[in-house]
Amino acid sequence: MSERSQDPLWDLLRGALGTRAVAIVAELGVPDALAEGPRPVAEVAREVGADSDTLYRLLRALASDGIFAEEEPGVFRNTGASEQLRGGWADFAHLFGGVFYRTASELDASGESPFERTFGTDFWAWLKANPDERASFDRAMEQGKERRIERLASVEW
Questions:
Q1: What pLDDT does residue 12 have?
Q2: How do the domains of the chain map onto residue ranges?
Q3: CA distances (Å), origin 101, targets 37, 47, 82, 112
Q4: Which fold has domain 8-83?
């Protein structure tokens, strides 16, 4: 059984920011840049083409949730969570922190499709017109399939 937050409202309210932050660091390749161990954020920022101050704030925010760890001021390392972003989970992060994030920002109670309103077409047609996004989606779904198999294997029957 998973542990529930002591403050679920706070977790939900800031959830979109966390989702976007994870997507940004995954898209930049930060987990790969930290694969060999702790590094100063300025060095990582130069390597991945990010603003050092912005990357520092993103990594600090994600470290507060255990996604990265700050070994000493300004020096970060991967955790088990960020290591997962070195594989198929980076595509999930891209999907949820990109196209789904934009779509969710347009969600309302009108009954209209926020995806179609945002992108001018349905999701499947959009994927067909955006082959890189389709490839990312397919990799994420494959990772999700592997995760479901892992979960099934861990169930005591």
A1: 85
A2: 8-83, 88-154
A3: 30, 26, 20, 17
A4: Arc Repressor Mutant, subunit A (1.10.10)
